[in-house]
Specification:
This protein is of the alpha/beta class. The protein is built from 19 helices and 13 strands. A six-stranded parallel beta sheet has the order 5-2-1-6-7-8, with helices on both faces. Strands 9-10-11 form a three-stranded antiparallel beta sheet, covered by helices on one side. It has a two-stranded antiparallel ribbon with strand order 3-4.
């Protein structure tokens, strides 16, 4: 589970290579920042060979989004940001300038022997270099070409750039997140991680695997996959979107509470806060018994979930009054003993101190070119017959240029030196 050096190609035994579902699939990754790299990291976890193409002398823009940055073996800060490390495990990096004719030729040669190409440039940008789907599919008609953009390949916004905060705003996420208007701290709120990027990356990975299956099972040819961050985020609005489509009313913000289940929210205890969810009427009755307010379960205003949703503003303070009588830990013990759902509001440090995190082996440590024992997150996909148990560190920019171009494409060293002197590669 280590990457042992600049020239290593993460060598695996044949048995290990066969153990992962996408072993033998090669993906040419022209994407950068988050959505595309998130998709290709998932595919790399599943065993695909990911060849990440980076701009010489600059690399992926995500590398510079810090601090924090990785510290090397001497304790010095490197140019490898936490953001970059979070999205680029199980990949190989080559530094190729696609704005040069020589760089474009390299990309075409790699596309000709790849199963998938992933890019997240603005619409039509790669057509200038002859690296769009129409051009590359002529060289390899089995190529799956996935484009991830802010708004997709069609529509009035197709040429617009976009980032997660913009998409969260435009797609309704911020309108549903945060406390209601009129209360302290009320107003729209952004989710605290790059939700739109992650969603579009996950949809992209699913679409790519599906296109590969269709190609190999039936069609024999590749196709273009059009993933829009806008589409992905709107699709993920799911039940909230259906709320509007069914009744024509905008859903409200409820802070920590759920819109259609009551109680399902944060409650203040004697020494802090916990989250409690009573997902059905039986659980609500048991919760009321535990809180020594059993009469609430018989009150016609609260007897069923439907009426509790309509009367949440009067019910929640009554429950919170009971919760304030004991500490967080006391309530969590009692809730678990009663078979009810409750939990702490953890900080990230609490998450990684949780015994469940250790039991699931969520953190793995790998050797990086610049540092030893770099912690990474394990893929959450657990497959019994084909375990995802091989992880390599996110590469430094251009770490595998000579290995890929010399070993895979067979470019002689003299030609590599010439390309390097012309700054087509690094």
């Amino acid at each position: 589970m280590t990457d042992v050096g600049a020239s290593s190609l993460a060598v695996e035994t044949k048995q290990e290579a066969k153990a992962r579902p996408l072993a033998g699939i090669r993906i040419l990754d022209l994407s950068r920042v988050f959505s595309g790299p998130w998709a290709t990291q998932m595919l790399g976890d599943l065993g695909a060979e990911i060849i990440k193409v980076e701009q010489p002398g600059r690399g992926d823009d995500l590398r510079r989004l810090g601090p924090p940055f990785l510290h090397d073996r001497d304790g010095k800060e490197t140019a490898e940001s936490a953001y970059y490390l979070s999205t680029n495990r199980n990949k190989k990096s080559i530094a190729v300038d696609i704005s040069t004719e020589q760089g474009q030729d390299i990309i075409r040669r790699l596309a000709a022997i790849s199963d998938v190409c992933v890019e997240n440039f603005k619409v039509d940008n790669l057509a200038r270099y002859g690296l769009d789907y129409a051009s590359l599919s002529k060289l390899n008609d089995r190529l799956i070409y996935c484009s991830i953009t802010a708004f997709g390949q069609t529509g009035p916004y197709r040429h617009r750039a976009g980032y997660d905060t913009l998409l969260q705003a435009m797609c309704g996420v911020m309108s549903l997140t945060g406390h209601p208007d009129g209360v302290p701290g009320g107003g729209p709120m952004k989710v605290g991680f790059v939700l739109s990027d992650m969603l579009s990356g996950m949809y992209a990975a699913t679409a790519i695997v599906s296109a590969l299956y269709e190609r190999d099972l039936r069609a024999g040819k590749g196709q273009q996959v059009d993933i829009s961050m806008f589409d992905a985020q709107v699709a993920a609005m799911s039940h909230q979107a259906m709320h509007y489509l069914l009744c024509g009313e905008d859903p409200e913000r409820f802070g920590t509470a759920a819109p259609s289940v009551v109680p399902s929210q944060m409650f203040e205890c004697a020494d802090g806060y916990i989250v409690v969810v009573a997902g059905n009427d039986d659980q609500f009755r048991r919760l009321c018994t535990l809180l020594e307010c059993a009469g609430l379960a018989e009150d016609p205003r609260y007897a069923t979930n439907g009426v509790r949703v309509r009367n949440r503003k009067t019910l929640a303070p009554l429950l919170e009054q009971q919760f304030r009588a004991k500490s967080k830990q006391q309530w969590l013990v009692l809730l678990e003993a009663a078979g009810l759902v409750g939990g702490p509001i953890n900080r990230i440090s609490d998450v990684f101190a949780d015994p469940q995190t250790a039991a699931r082996g969520i953190v793995v440590k790998v050797d990086h070119k610049l540092a030893d024992g770099v912690p990474l997150l394990r893929s959450p996909m657990r497959l019994s017959g084909t375990p995802l148990d091989t992880y390599t560190a996110p590469p430094t920019s251009g770490q595998h240029t000579d290995d890929i171009l010399g070993g895979l494409l067979g470019i002689p060293q003299a030609e590599l030196d010439s390309l390097r002197s012309r700054k087509a590669i690094v």
